[in-house]
Design a protein that fits this description.
The structure is a homodimer of 117-residue chains.
Chain A (H helix, E strand, L loop, with lengths): L4 E2 H5 L9 E6 L2 E11 L10 E7 L1 E6 L2 E6 L2 E5 L5 E16 L18
Antiparallel strand pairs in A: 2-3, 3-8, 4-7, 4-8, 5-6, 5-8
Pfam families (chains A, B): Cupin_2
Protein name (chains A, B): Cupin domain-containing protein
Amino acid sequence: MSHPINLAEKLAQISTHWDPHVIADYNGNEVMVVKFQGEFPFHLHEETDDFFLVLKGEMVMDIEDRSHPVRAGEIFVVPKGVTHRPRSEHECEVLLIEPKGEPNTGDAATAASKPRI
Amino acid sequence: MSHPINLAEKLAQISTHWDPHVIADYNGNEVMVVKFQGEFPFHLHEETDDFFLVLKGEMVMDIEDRSHPVRAGEIFVVPKGVTHRPRSEHECEVLLIEPKGEPNTGDAATAASKPRI
């Protein structure tokens, strides 16, 4: 049964970084919340765009030869095939959308498990 | 070129209600912002889920035999084929995601035009 999903309540259950947790499904995509702090590896997704919405704090998206600050209330969509690196000096909270089963690193061997909360 | 998209700046350009504006693309979906006030018609989308994230204010999602308040910071995903009606006594601001070309009413004859901003 459908019901409202409170992002802050879900984020309060997460104490780790770079560890997306699935909170909803949309047409074969997983809607996730995650906390970022530090640097993620540069990576790319061959077959999918990568959707980020910063909910709290600020991250930086390194992409090609530029660094984009992405602040709370801002979206950044990384097109498929584009190498990128999210990073954040201080902890920030992010909503992610990726197709179900897509590795967060673009590589199943190094990907997080994406538990459902 | 990818760049951060500020939701409040986009919403400041919208003065109408029930009039989604496209702000980004994700894998063949349109990411939109919209202002709701009053009642939308009951409708359904035969082939797609319908993604709502309330950014500011509060809406109610009438779905089947229940009414769900959905507040700022909350997501509601209406599964495909399920009849629903968003409504809001006071103006509220919402992020929507639907496949490109999907009519917002579920019916091309009555749909809004979804301009890009």
